[in-house]
Amino acid sequence: MSTVSLNWQTLWHPEQDLKGDQNIPGFKRIMAKAGGKGVNLKDKLDGNELDLSLSDLNEVPVKELAALPKATILDLSCNNLTSLPSDFCSLTHLVKLDLSKNQLQQLPSDFGRLVNLQHLDLLNNRLVMLPVSFAQLKNLKWLDLKDNPLDPILAKVAGDCLDEKQCKQAAIRVLQHMKAIQSEQDRERQRRLQAEREMEKQREAEQRKKEAQERELRRREKAEEKERRRREYDALKAARQEMETQTQKESSEIPKLASVSRPSHLPQHRRSWFQALLKLLLLIFLCALSTVAVCRVTELQRHSLCISVNALYEDVVMALQSHKIVQNVLHQNSQQ
């Protein structure tokens, strides 16, 4: 912790007008937070140094500090601070910061925004790790991390801060260590991003493959459906052609039969006589069959007429049989 000895009487006299200082935003609020001891803010501000140590502060009055951009040196040591508000990192005008002998358990994640910081005292707090953004404090030249429950690796890197040289070496080593952690985290982030991109590409490739398979499946289904409809069409066309061929064949055979049964060259009157003769012969044949049936089946078979009919019938049957016998003999002779 660094203190500055100044002759307050050379800078300010009680009889001077304090109205201008009392118009500073949050002036009365800072006075209340300074333990209620009735200390004037002018007593705390000396040139570019603002001393709020031993003020029993539980929180940092960031808004009031932001209204004093000329206060590049800020002493908040020996208070009851357990954390720093996130907007504390907006005090980028700070060059020297003393937070020793508080109860800080961690620093804000964007602590690296204090890029103008050159001197940082964190003695006797409860810090275990430092935020990765700590690597962005490129102007840091002096650092004290003693009496903190630091991570063993970080504690080894920081080392002691018993004199000016050791504290400067601690700042250099810790910055290098945090830069290495930041680089490793950046590489890990890049690896994760690369892995995510690869996975995204793989998902896109699988999606394209799936879509291509679905398109191919739809194409095959359409082709099969088209082929099935074509076969049905060909079968229907063949059946229709077969029916037409059969119809044409039947149509062509009917005139031939008609020409055989009824010669077309006969005159109309001769065809009518011929038809009448055929009908008469058919009628006579039917009558003869009826007479034969009556004479052979009924009791009239002993009648003289039926006896003659039966005798005639038997002669005809014998003649037909003998004719058949002659045909069989001739057929056998022809085969031999």
Number of strands: 6
What is the overall shape? rod-shaped
**Biggest sheet, open or closed, and with what strands and sense?**
6 strands, mixed
SSE order: HHHHEEHEEEEHHHH
Relative strand content: 5-15%
Structural class: mainly alpha
Radius of gyration: 64 Å
Low-confidence stretches: 1-39
Q: Determine the number of helices (DSSP H or I, runs of at least 4 residues).
A: 9
Which bin fits the share of residues in helices? 55-70%
| Strand neighbour order, sheet with most strands | 1-2-3-4-5-6
Termini separation comes to 149 Å
Mean pLDDT metric: 80
Give the helix/strand layout.
Elements: H1 8-11, H2 19-22, H3 27-33, H4 41-44, E1 45-46, E2 49-51, H5 62-66, E3 73-75, E4 96-98, E5 119-121, E6 142-144, H6 152-158, H7 164-261, H8 268-297, H9 304-335
Parallel strand pairs: 2-3, 3-4, 4-5, 5-6
Antiparallel strand pairs: 1-2
What does this structure look like?
A six-stranded mixed beta sheet has the order 1-2-3-4-5-6. Helices cover about 55% and strands about 5% of the residues. The N terminus is likely disordered. The protein is built from nine helices and six strands.
What can be said about this structure in brief?
The chain is mainly alpha-helical and 336 residues long. The chain has helices at 8-11, 19-22, 27-33, 41-44, 62-66, 152-158, 164-261, 268-297, 304-335; strands at 45-46, 49-51, 73-75, 96-98, 119-121, 142-144.
Structural features:
336 residues; mainly alpha; six-stranded mixed β-sheet; 6 strands
